[in-house]
Prior knowledge:
The protein is an alpha+beta fold. The chain contains four helices and nine strands. Strands 1, 2, 3, 4, 5, 6, 7, 8 and 9 form a nine-stranded mixed beta sheet that branches.
Amino acid sequence: MVVEKPAGMLVIPAPGHSGGTLTDLLNKERVGPAAHPCHRIDMDTSGLILYAKGKGTQQAMMEEFKQRRVKKSYIAFVNGLIANKSAVIDRPIEGKRAVTRYNVTEQRRDFAVVDVEPLTGRTNQIRIHFKAIGHPLVGERKFAFAKDFKLRFRRAALHSQKIEFSHPGTGEAMSFTSPMPDDMRKFLEENK
């Protein structure tokens, strides 16, 4: 299953947040095999999450992620004017290689709209990489001080917009997209 997660909801429990997760919600409504997340995105991040119907399928899909055969892409709003319109950020995170490819699709006065493809899957990779190059996400509060930037947004402006993979049972190529969420679309309209 591919599910669209709203911003502000955890995929699975985390310290200090034990209930009300997307996984809890899905399994409360489901009839049949339990839904198991194959990956995670940050609580602040909206967009697509892949779930498996059963532990065996979950393990198979997690191996696909590990082997980098699942392609994910995001849309992000980042602070400032980015000199390199297309680039690869290759910087380790906690001693492990982390690689992010990006392409600026639109440059506004105080921020850029960026298509982002994480080529590795480190925790908070996109947020850490854009902070490292001096362009933290609009609304970032974990890896940057929001007060240091002119623009305000209620969360880190990051949306998981596309996921592509091979179906674990049939091998069929699968591709799913998610439109930009209302809060990010409204931000674009208000900040031309």
